[in-house]
Amino acid sequence: MSTEKVKAALLQTIGGIQNDPKNAHATFSVKTAWVNGVLTKARARQFNFTIDEPENLGGTDLAPNPVEYLLASLGACQEILYAAFAAVQGIPLTAVKVDVKGPLDLHGMFGLKEGVPAGFREIEYHTVIESPAPRAVIEALIATVESHCPVLDTLVNPVKVTGTVEIRQTAEILN
Question: For helices 66-89 and 3-19, what crossing angle results, to 10°?
């Protein structure tokens, strides 16, 4: 999609929110289902994707694992917002690339050591922005993106997460 089409779509959405604040509320959802082993399929809107683990974690290495999707979400969200805000503000971009990584202690995931968290304790990203725009303009764009990135905000601020588990007993098939 061209920068002008991105700008037009975003300005239309922004206008819709300004005209009726109820338009600002959006809910995103994903459905997942276990396939076998540690392979999972997911569906978001009309898109299907696969989640797997590398072989050393019991997978078949057919797709990224959940924590890799988490890291990709941060990088992609930032790249999308750079493109979006730059388009709306008329800032030319040549390239935006984000390298995201985080160390994970598998002691926590496997329950091998008390007190070791199962998830990331830190995530680091390095963004490269190429643009002919003046440095001050890009620095303002960086501040805007970093203060408005939903994935970054979700990762750095506590989020209330609730859930339920439903147990359905199935009869074992006897041969």
Answer: 90
- Tokens of residue 36, six digits: 């076998």
Q: What is the pLDDT of residues 2-55, one digit of tens each?
A: 888 888 888 888 888 899 888 899 999 999 999 999 999 999 999 999 999 999
Strands 47-51 and 31-36: unpaired
Residue with the two structure tokens 């935006």: 96
Per-residue pLDDT reduced to its tens digit, 125-153: 999 999 999 999 999 999 999 999 999 99
> Which pair of structure tokens corresponds to residue 113?
């050591």
What is the chain's length? 175
CB count within 10 Å of CB 89 equals 13
- pTM of the full structure: 0.89
How far is it, in rounded angstroms, from Cα 133 to Cα 43? 39
Domain ranges of the chain: 65-157
- Would you identify the CATH topology of the domain 65-157? GMP Synthetase; Chain A, domain 3 (3.30.300)
The C-alpha angle 90, 94, 98, rounded to 5 degrees, equals 105
Token readout for 28 is 């995103």
